[in-house]
Amino acid sequence: MTKVRDVVRSDLFLTVRMISSVLNLNRQTIHEILTFELAMQKICAKLVPKFLTNEQKENRRNVCLDLLEYIENDKNFFKHVITGDEMWIFEYDPDTKRQSSEWHTSNSPRPKNAKMSKSKIKTMLICFFDSQDVVHKEFMPQGQTVNKQYYHEVLERLRKRVHRVRPEIADTWMLHHNSAPCHTAISMNEFLAKKDISVVPQPPYSPDLSPYDFFLFPKLKFHLKGRHFGTVDNIQKVVTDQLRALLHEDSQHCYRELEQRLRRCVASQGNYFEGDNVDL
Questions:
Q1: Which end of the chain is more exposed for a tag (fewer CB within 10 A), N or C?
Q2: Residues 6 or more apart from 100 whose CB is under 8 A from it?
Q3: Residue 49 neighbours by CB under 8 Å, 6+ apart
Q4: How many Å from the N-terminal Cα to the C-terminal Cα in the chain?
């Protein structure tokens, strides 16, 4: 067992076959030692958005600590938060490998799918939601780009919408969005300050702390992947139907999960934590 451990530590990329050759032991024995005696398994590297610097890790941790303090002082903190972002929706987006899996017997031939690409026909969704459901959504006109002027107009429409559909938080709601240039422009900050709208901090390179990225995007894409919609109008209709189908409980669960993610980020010292066993 000690020899196997030493060989593995010398090169973590070795295969069972290679270890077997080095130690002149059969592969079954090597596999049993690795699995049962050393409690080891071979895992793939986790893809992360970016290799974070120490300063970025510290910033993530500090933002999470600040938000957890807000939550501790006000249990209704998230009831005042409206989070939003933009995403492209394609006329056709190939389904994932997991989505295309099928049940078969051991003697059945393996299913095959031709490699497909995303359609060039697409529309951009801009959506804002809170712990109840979707507050405001719109589709960006074809040919338009999300610049600071257009985003300013979007936020003005959002502000008026909040007054209509969330009158109880019309004067206390807070905006949560990422640090995209059009979101953090000086003119944008001035507009938000003038309207007395606070901004909930979102550390850069942190999709694991964004409700849009870990909740809404995946939930929408799961229902849209692998389907052809034909036209932009059809895409927008299906997306609208999916947003209407979101349950109040789904949104509440999303914000409860966000709180847990904040804690996991702190426990991970600001590192990416998805897929890791983090003790809270």
A1: C
A2: 111, 113, 226
A3: 205, 206, 207, 272
A4: 33
d(CA 54, CA 129): 32
Domains of the chain, residue spans: 2-37, 54-100+113-267
> Could you report the average pLDDT of every consecutive run of 10 residues in the chain (280 residues)?
85 86 87 86 74 95 97 95 94 66 63 64 95 95 92 96 96 94 93 95 94 92 87 94 90 94 95 72
Q: What pTM was computed for the model? A: 0.79
State the CATH architecture for 54-100+113-267. Answer: 2-Layer Sandwich (3.30)
Residues 128 and 136: beta-carbon distance below 8 Å: yes
Taking the CB of residue 183, how many other CB atoms lie within 10 A of it?
21
d(Cα 204, Cα 181) in Å, to the nearest integer? 11
